[in-house]
Structures are given as C-alpha cells and as structure tokens.
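Q&A FORM
Asked by: J.P.
Topic: structure of Fe2OG dioxygenase domain-containing protein

PROVIDED:
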Amino acid sequence: MAFPVIDISRIDDPEAQLDIALKITEASRTWGFLLLKNHPIPNEDVDAMFQLGRDFFNLPPAGKDSWPINDKYMGYNAPLSDRRKDDKASMWLAGKPGQLQNSLDALPPFWHAHIDEVEAFKHACHALVVKLLVCFALAMELPDRNFFAKAHGEAEGDGNQLRILSYPARGNAPADKITRMSPHSDSGSVTLLFQTCAGLEVESPSGEWMPAPHLDDHILVNLGDALAFWSGGRLRATKHRVTFGTVPHDVERISMAYFGAASHDTVLQPLKQEEGGEAQVLRDYNANGVVIQPGVTVGEYLKVIMNNIYGNGAMHQLVVETPKAHGIAV
Ligand SMILES: O=C(O)CCC(=O)C(=O)O
Ligand SMILES: [Fe+2]
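REPLIED BY: S.T.
REPLY: Here is the structure written out as tokens.
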C-alpha cells in the first residue's frame, strides 16, 4: 500500500470536496499519516518560520535556557530533556491567539519581536486543521459536518501548539542508547508536520518502521490519540520516531509541528457505531502508556501526557472521577 499523497487544491470546491474528504479519511484510517499536496499555506511563510527557528537555536545558551517549557506549553526544551533522553531541542509557542503576547516573560527575548509572525502562521495552520476536521465528518456522514470542527474554536484553543524542533549536528557518532525522538503517537487531534529534510519514521499499516517520504512543499499530516479515540477508531493515531539511523548525525535537522487540539473542556466519548464509530468498542485504548477512558476531557488527558514527558520521570495515569456523558461540551 503506497504512502498516501493527496492533492487538496480543490478542498473548498463543493464539487471536489467529498472526493478529497474520502481520500483523506481513508488514508487516516489505514496509515494515520498522509502528505498534503497543493495546500493553502504559502511556502515562503513556512520557510520564514524555519529561518526563525534556525536563528533561535543558534543562539548561545543564555538566550534560551532560562525559559524552559512551562505548564502552558510555552518555552524552550533543551537537548536530552524531552523524555529525559531525546537528543533534540525544541521551542514551544502554544495557546490561543493573544496568549504569546500576554506571556512574554515565559518566552526567550528572541521571540518578542516575532509574535505577530508566529500568530499569523498558527492562524493559517489552524484554518487548515479545521478544513481537515470537516473532511472527516463529511466522509463519516455525520449529520453535522462541523461535528469535530466546532470543538476546535481557535479562540478556545489552549491546546493548539506550534513546536519548532532542532536535531543538532553532532560531531561524533552517538552512543546506541541515545534517541532523537522516541517512538510515540501525538495526543491531540491533527498534527501538521513541516520538514526541511527526511528523517521521520512511521509505523506502516503492517506494523514495520519505514521512512516517511519527504516531498518539498508538502505537509505531512498525522492524527492524535484524542481524535482517534473520539472517532471510535475510525481514524488512527500512528506511532512515529526519529533515530540517529535516519538523520545524518553531522547536519542539523529542523522540523516544525502544529498540534491542533480540541478545546480543553471537550469530553471524549467514542462515536457509537450508528454515529460512524467502529463496531469494536474502544476498551483500554492505551496511548503512550496512558489508558484513555470515556468521559475524560481533552484538557485532563493532555495534562497527563505532558507531565509524563516533561515531569520528574514518574508515569501518571488518568483518573476520571465523574465521566461526562456527552460527545462535546462546548
Ligand atoms: O521532527 C519530526 O519530524 C517529528 C516531530 C514529532 O513527532 C513531534 O513533535 O511530535
Ligand atoms: Fe509526534
């Protein structure tokens, strides 16, 4: 089965939309990964963000280290701090519009002059995520084509995160045990991944690690566990990783992920079969070592996941005291 590459140039054209929605949804069900061709985000804007990332990561430690990632997913994460072992750095620029401007103390000074550019880029990413969410609802024949999209209001988007990543060049061949990006699935709804070169490996539908193809000017899309669970298993959150085997150790690799998540008060109840869910009920849906339970909110779930990655090394599980009953609480 070939890795899906889908042309979305006519995604807003009513005559082409359903066909595109069916292709995107089928790729999301089988692979959980796809490449978007002819997407609406201008390549110059993507390149400009990459350049900001490069300039930032090139700063001396004094320009970065005093602003570690905080509980609002803003700030810097230095090499070997992510999962306490991954050899990459990243900068998190999260939250709804206005949050960056209101949180300048949490951001390295480098970013203060670039807030508007970052916000505009996040806004464009969000608009594309919403288009994809509409496609899923259309292809699943849900009564409301905005079923997923309406839980992703940009103004409520505390969990929307832009993350710029740097896999620094290393002079020596690394020791075996050091990873670049440990195997994981993403946690929210839809991730847009922008890459300057190949390097990502994904779990294929038959369960083997394989390199994700890299095509210039395409966006790699993958899905998070919250949406996969909520869809009743119709959409797949696929594991992926970056290793020293796939990225040459002596050149820096820059990538950028926009994580689109539903608002924190969205309640995750898997779609029933008559609503488009799979017959198999999603019991014990285990994602990155955390069991997602029906009735949990997106905010509760994302918090546990982030604590497990950035916390003191202890693994937390979700405790849902009073599961909420409805599909969406917005
Ligand atoms: O750097 C990449 O290509 C992957 C990044 C990623 O998987 C993530 O940030 O969740
Ligand atoms: Fe990821």
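FOLLOW-UP: The two ends are 38 Å apart (CA to CA).
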